[in-house]
Amino acid sequence: MPSSDRRAVLTGWGAHAPAHVVTNADLERLLDTTDEWISTRTGVCERRWADPATSTGDMAVRAGRAALDRAGVDHVDRVVLATTTPDHPCPGTAPWVAHQLGLGDVGAHDVAAVCSGFLYALGTARDAVLAGSATRVLVIGADRFTSLLDPQDRGTTVIFGDGAGAVVVEARPDDTPGDTPGALGDVVLGADGSTYDHIIVRAGGTRAPLTSSTPPPDRYFTMAGREVFTAAVHRLADVAAQAAGRAGWDVQQCDWLVAHQANRRILAAVGRALGLPPDRVVCDLDRYGNTSAASIPMALAHHADRFTTGDRIVLAAFGGGTTWGATTLTWPATTRPATADRAPTLTATTAR
Ligand code: COA
Questions:
Q1: Which of 173, 201, 223 is the last residue of a domain?
Q2: I want to staple 325 with a disulfide (CB 3.0 to 4.6 A). Which of 40, 119, 241, 336 is the partner?
């Protein structure tokens, strides 16, 4: 198929969340916080924490397997893993994930764009498919974000959770007028390095290596909450509108917004800015918190039953760097039986 005759189409999706549920009541026992503060300020009611033996790569393998099963495929040309919490500083985690999935010696690499990582990875996959350098790509967003948090920092610990989500992106002939089911539109990306330190782990890289004298706060994730909140609303609304415009869609007429799950108030403000009714803005953070690069593919997998073939969906992300991105997705045909690891039944409620 000549590359000019291709579309990049989403054919599979899946998610994995650790079994261990941590409720706001659990956090009340660990931190100076309340369920009332957390739920009204963030919308998060509970989140998942990976056990110490479970890595980002382990979760990525499970989500990747679910997406491959949903697509009904066992081979891809490339694996792209978005993560800020790789299994090791070196090498990237994607080659190990590809190996665990039995995908052979395909190209596999990580992408680091924090909470925007999945959109950056999706853009890489779409570009490869449209250029003809790949016909099928497994795109995973996975983060064990709790590994970066100061467990005593109530400002961050209450927000984030662990998890993984994945999609399969494939080439299809571009021979259908209108919205092809599964088609991904242009991926619009942006970054503003002048706000680099608004979301940051200060030590542990080459600028400030970890030493015995590293101040404890510099070891952990920090964010300028209010500045991030304001920027997230502005950037998410702007980039979502840009992506919809590139697809020729009136953003107000879109069926769903699946945005990075940072804060329910951010989602509500973005929905209002775009003129979307609240019930068209997918909210997954109440049960999973902010899972960084995993949040968009997890939300897609967990809410897939609400989507109908042909639904117009805008995906939008904002994160550290600062970075942002968005694209459009026409929801694919969903005739294949689900084997994906959907939202697990809630069982355990004990905090670690
Ligand atoms: N429980 C109880 N009180 C808390 C608290 C918690 N978990 N965390 C902070 N507070 C307190 C603060 O200490 C502060 O107290 P003070 O007024 O006595 O100083 C008060 O609540 C208000 O803090 P503030 O940080 O101004 O709250 P906020 O309304 O801005 O909400 C965030 C804080 C983090 C929830 C909000 O700023 C936010 O969601 N920002 C975006 C974060 C984000 O999305 N990051 C990821 C982007 S990829």
A1: 173
A2: 119
